[in-house]
Design brief:
heterodimer; A: 828 residues; alpha/beta; 4 domains; 6-stranded mixed β-sheet; 30 helices; disordered C terminus; B: mainly alpha; two-stranded antiparallel ribbon; 8 helices; 51% helix; 1% strand; MoPterin_dinucl-bd_dom (chain A); iron (chain A); metal-binding (chain A)
Chain lengths: 828, 298
């Protein structure tokens, strides 16, 4: 079978690392770099290769305008230009001069941008149980009236909740944050980032004081070793993967380590591949840290000067010699030693931590151990020494505060930070919810279920499509659901008010990519019908709610994207994510990473140069939590142990995953998100089936396991966990023994949901994220090759939950692809 | 003197078992609070481990001599030692949760379900009948002879008759606790059947629709107070946890006085873990409290 990931469409452009002088130059602050003689190349040596995808029958000369925009396919933040002809988006082209992608595009990019049918064009409200079209006035007044009614009661702030997706712009996230946190004063704001980027953010904040990727993609140019921790880079960050591959094919290629299931492009490419048993990442990393420390492969001076907690870390990892780690993780001792050697010998190490690690057992603890590798080796803050925790899209939500944290990476428990915000917004500090940790997404839905949340506003997200049982909650009589989305999603079908929103390309705003690079995404075409930009909808709501500050002036004093960005800049001032040096004009010339002060218009590529971290009690984003339970340590203890700008080496014991295999269920089911499942958002009705990668549902079984069960390639097998069952066609491939892998590429949301039903919901206590990536299962042969009628058999049994008393879900409906409209909402 | 220590350690051991059971029960009666998943099981195992590690010291000091000449059995970290005394039915903690009947010494009533709890309408089934736990799970002879009611908390109160066994002055304790109870009652009027004379059932209030009964069937009803039940359960466990916390610090003092390095090591191992348990309970309570206490349900 042709592997389109390992062999992508574009040609390879091998390159070697910059020389030592250029590396030194890259380490200089930007104003000094500007003063260097032009003979020293400052840019990345990665060759430019411009990718373009256009609608069939449209050639580049036919395009009327090219409008700057940002990748909508993932969280990489690739810069691109959108082709417009006749008021329509007809293609995308990578931007050659951009620091992130050098012209390349994610193969999914066009799929993400192509105009779709079935857009919402008018607001809908529920009348007599049916959604009917109406005007903006009616819809918005209904939302505002209900909000006011709820807010009028004592404790009314706690009745309003916001769940936000990752498809908003920074300006919109910030506007929503101000509405929620200063206007209404609700702690119930969270969103899809909780299920993606939250573990990465939690680990970064735990180790370094605040969120923010320490590294930069340009570190790949300089590095001599690459480590992919549970990161199927080819699938989740294809452009970054091409950069890595090009380095591997050029002169002086970096060594590569990969962990995670076999079968990924990274696993095939890596020099050392550690196919650890699912859920044992902490044991592996503890073993590697043991090797590094015991072998003396760590920077004693850096550790002494810039970290705290080394003794405790050693006390814990001392118990994980390679032999023990190898036993726990089901890999060979030699592999662990080889990996440790690569990590220990590297002079410039780049690590990327992917969703597989950040979504499995002990997610935050494991991610912290990767941070520890870099801290021990002093691999931070210089060219080639980079670390990226790539949990998923939505950095903007985390920075701007529309998710659980306060805007500007501020600490809710720090009264100084709360006062800063209160002064900025000119509101009473008591309004800003800081009396406890903000409510996480699962808890918000729980409150909605219990009935204490009366209004749930879901923006640009479709949680009902992926969360089993949510439809029952959203359908409650006493819960008023507002859905703001471009499409009539499954969630929207359950709403009381549906607000039609614009998609990217129909509105202006900025987006922050995974390496902190901010890009401008400009409006190219008009939204269809009466659909509006999310920013306009939120500003309209604030107006109707008459949200005011202490002096009676409107709370939101901005009217468009650019003025909203200026407001955000004021909020970010002095914080680690300082945007004050960025302007829309500057962004039109190309992406800029934060922090960026007015004095340096380039932004700072790498955080923590010189080993200075944001861990001072006045700077940090969190006062710390116990990695095993999530218990918060509190300000007093933090101040007592003042780390004074040093980073934390957090130690964690390996805890077996609750879903580890046993005799009853000897295999472990893991899923592999495929290249066609949008990390940015779940599949939606109206999305075309991802044509280039469409695949029949199959289950990768190790030939050894299959032989024991008498399963042959192509047989229909049933996977049973204590919670349910799922049927699929077995493919005997080189998967890890003891693990069955369900690739989700090309699969509809129905399969994704069936899998969610099947797996246990474990919990990462620090990032408060549900983990449903692995389940102990048994495999039963359900039919011979070719004889089963797959369409009926598939995932029909998935809904039966045993022993939980939950009513079986109604039959899930797979969304037919092909880009036609889904069945129209007949009620309208 | 060391007889007192033995009794004190016994009380601590029982309290640890009770706390362990309490964590298990918390998880079980609030099945819809997904963030309890994993953490409760972990903390319960930790408490049980604490109690099991105490066993050799119970034997050492029960014998009456101040310093047992035998060294404490060395053990690998994390592994409880092999116990010679009739061992508590470890299988009581099976994967599915705690099985009430299998539990004896550690019962301490923490798992008893308070029929006078706030959600009184919801659990009149046999499953939640406190009498069952009373009869099956609790070693009344040990626990209730003192009859000291330290229940400073309405539904989450715990009966710590064990204080008596530990040689504390029951009258003083009673006075202090009575005061606390009365203060609370002054605030919360109408706590049905609250009577300081009766040994009150502690522990965990059944949440809505546990997997094991209650109103299991139709549980998509409105505001049902399960948030309040959770808050109170956490509150109760916190009080139980503080008792362990305090006890460990006292045990550490005693160990220093006895120059018993093993016991001191144990206290040093267990005290921080107990402190984390308290922090966790506090964190979780802080999360839930404003919403439950302030925000009206619809």
């Amino acid at each position: 079978m042709l592997d389109r990931i390992a062999d992508p469409r574009g040609r390879r452009t091998p390159y070697g690392p910059p020389d030592a002088v250029e590396r030194l130059a890259a380490a200089l602050p930007s104003h000094m770099r500007d003063a260097l003689p032009p003979v020293i190349r400052l840019g990345s040596p990665w060759p430019v290769r411009v990718d373009a995808f256009t609608e069939d029958g449209v050639a580049e000369p036919d395009v009327e305008r090219w409008v700057p925009a940002v990748s909508a396919a993932g969280s990489n933040g690739d810069a691109l230009d959108v082709a417009v002809r006749g008021g329509r988006v007809v293609g995308v082209r990578g931007r050659a001069g951009d620091r992130v992608n050098h012209g390349r595009l994610d193969p999914r990019e066009w799929h993400a941008w192509q105009p779709r049918a079935a857009r919402l064009t008018r607001p809908l409200v529920r009348e007599d149980g049916r959604l009917v079209e109406t005007t903006w006035d009616v819809a918005m007044n209904r939302v505002a009236a209900r909000s006011r009614e709820l807010l009028a009661r004592p404790g009314g702030w706690g009745s309003l909740a916001f769940h936000t997706g990752t498809r908003l712009f920074l300006e919109e996230h910030y506007t929503l944050a101000v509405i929620g946190k200063a206007g209404i004063g609700t702690p119930h704001m969270d969103g899809d980032t909780r299920w993606g980027a939250a573990a990465a953010a939690a680990a970064l904040a735990a180790s370094f004081g605040t969120d923010g990727q320490p590294g930069s993609y340009t570190d790949v140019d300089h590095c001599d070793a690459l480590a992919l921790w549970g990161h199927d880079c080819a699938a989740t960050h294809p452009v970054l993967w091409e950069r890595m591959l090009d380095r591997r094919l050029g002169s002086r290629p970096p060594a590569m380590i990969a962990t995670g299931p076999e079968g990924t492009a990274g696993a095939r490419e890596a020099d050392v591949h550690l196919a650890v048993r699912p859920g044992t990442n902490v044991a592996l990393l503890n073993g590697l840290l043991h090797e590094l420390i015991a072998g003396g492969w760590y920077d004693t001076a850096y550790v002494a000067a810039h970290t705290v907690g080394f003794e405790r870390l050693w006390r814990v990892v001392e118990a994980y010699p390679a032999k023990r780690a190898a036993e726990i993780c089901a890999v060979s001792v030699a592999q662990i030693e080889q990996a440790a050697e690569i990590l220990g010998a590297a002079e410039r190490l780049v690590s990327t931590v992917g969703p597989a690690l950040l979504g499995s057992n002990q997610a935050t603890a494991a991610a912290c151990q990767v941070n520890n590798v870099h801290l021990l080796r002093g691999m931070l803050g210089r060219p080639g020494a980079g670390l990226c925790q790539l949990g998923g899209p939505g950095c903007d939500a985390l920075e701007a505060g529309s998710a659980a944290d306060l805007p500007g990476l501020r600490n809710w428990a720090d009264t100084g930070h709360v006062r800063e915000l209160a002064d900025l917004w000119n509101v009473d500090p008591a309004v800003i919810p800081h009396w406890g940790p903000a409510t996480h997404a699962t808890q918000i839905l729980r409150y909605a279920e219990e009935g204490s949340v009366g209004l749930l506003w879901i923006t640009a997200s479709d949680p009902a499509a992926t969360m089993p049982g949510l439809d029952r909650i959203l359908a409650r009589e006493d819960l008023f659901v507002v859905v703001q989305d471009p499409y009539l999603t499954e969630t929207a079908r359950l709403a009381d008010v549906v607000l039609p929103a614009a998609v990217w390309g129909e509105k202006t705003g900025t987006v922050t990519g995974a390496d902190r690079t901010v890009h401008l995404c400009e409006k190219a075409v008009e939204p269809p019908g009466e659909a509006r930009a999310d920013l306009d909808i939120l500003l309209d709501y604030a107006r109707r709610m008459d949200l005011r500050d202490r002096d009676g002036r409107p709370l939101l004093r901005w009217t468009d994207a650019e003025s909203a960005f200026e407001a955000w800049k004021a909020c970010s001032r002095g914080r680690p994510c300082d945007h004050t040096g960025i302007t829309y004009d500057r962004l039109r010339a190309g992406g800029v990473p934060w922090p960026c002060l007015p004095s340096s218009s380039h932004g700072i590529e790498r955080l923590y140069a010189g080993g200075r971290f944001n861990t001072g009690p006045e700077d940090c984003q969190t006062f710390g939590a116990d990695l095993a339970t999530g218990a918060e340590y509190g300000e007093e203890r933090y101040r007592a142990e003042n780390p004074r700008g040093r980073a934390f080496l957090h130690a964690a014991e390996f805890e077996p995953s609750p879903e580890v295999a046993d005799d009853e269920h000897p295999l472990v089911l893991v899923t592999r998100p495929g290249p066609c499942r949008f990390p940015a958002r779940p599949a939606r009705p109206g999305d075309a089936a991802s044509e280039p990668f469409a695949a029949e549902p199959c289950l990768e079984v190790h030939p050894g396991d299959a032989a024991a069960l008498g399963v042959e390639d192509g047989d229909l097998v049933r996977v049973e966990s204590p919670l349910g069952a799922l049927e699929a066609v077995a493919r005997l491939s080189g998967a890890c023994p003891g693990a069955v892998v369900l690739p989700l590429d090309g699969q509809g949301e129905a399969v994704a949901r069936a899998v969610a039903e099947l797996t246990f919901t474990a919990w990462d206590p620090v990032s408060r994220r549900p983990l449903c990536t692995a389940a102990a299962v048994r495999l039963v042969k359900a039919g011979r090759r070719g004889e089963a009628a797959l369409e009926e058999g598939l995932y029909s049994a998935a809904a039966t939950r045993l022993g939980c008393g939950v009513t079986a879900r109604p039959e899930v409906t797979a969304v037919a692809g092909g880009g036609e409209a889904p069945e129209r909402y007949e009620e309208v | 003197m060391s007889g007192h220590l033995a009794r004190y350690l016994e009380t601590l051991s029982r309290t640890q078992h009770a706390l362990s059971y309490g964590f298990h029960t918390l998880r079980r009666v609030h099945p819809r609070e997904s963030d309890l998943c994993g953490v409760c099981e972990r903390l319960a195992a930790q408490c049980r481990d604490h109690a099991e590690r105490l066993e050799p010291f119970l034997r050492r000091y029960r014998s009456g001599s101040l310093r047992d000449p035998r060294p404490a059995p060395s053990r690998a970290p994390g592994r409880p030692p092999g116990l010679e005394v009739p061992r508590r039915e470890a299988s009581g903690f099976d994967a599915a949760g705690f099985e009430g009947a299998g539990f004896e010494a550690g019962a301490f009533q923490a798992g008893g379900f308070d029929a006078r709890g706030i959600d009184a309408g919801g659990f009149d089934t046999g499953e939640f009948d406190s009498g069952r736990f009373d009869a099956g799970g609790r070693d009344t002879g040990v626990l209730d002879t003192g009859g000291v009611n330290t229940g400073g908390f309405d539904s989450g109160s715990f009966d710590s008759g064990g204080f008596d066994a530990a040689g504390l002055e029951p009258a003083d304790l009673q006075r202090v606790v009575r005061g606390a109870v009365e203060r609370e009652r002054a605030g919360a009027e109408g706590a049905e059947g609250a009577d300081s004379g009766t040994a009150r059932r502690p522990g965990v209030t059944p949440g809505r629709g546990g997997g094991n009964g209650g109103r299991g069937g139709g549980r998509d009803g409105g505001g049902d107070g399960s948030g309040l039940a959770l808050l109170r359960d956490l509150h109760g466990l916190y009080l139980l946890g503080t008792e362990c916390d305090l006890s460990w610090s006292v045990v550490a003092q005693a160990a220093r006085g006895l120059r018993d390095d093993d016991l001191l090591g144990l206290a040093r191992h267990c005290a921080p873990e107990t402190a984390i348990q308290l922090l966790w309970l506090r964190t979780r309570m802080h999360q839930v409290a404003p919403q439950v206490l302030v925000v009206p349900s619809w």
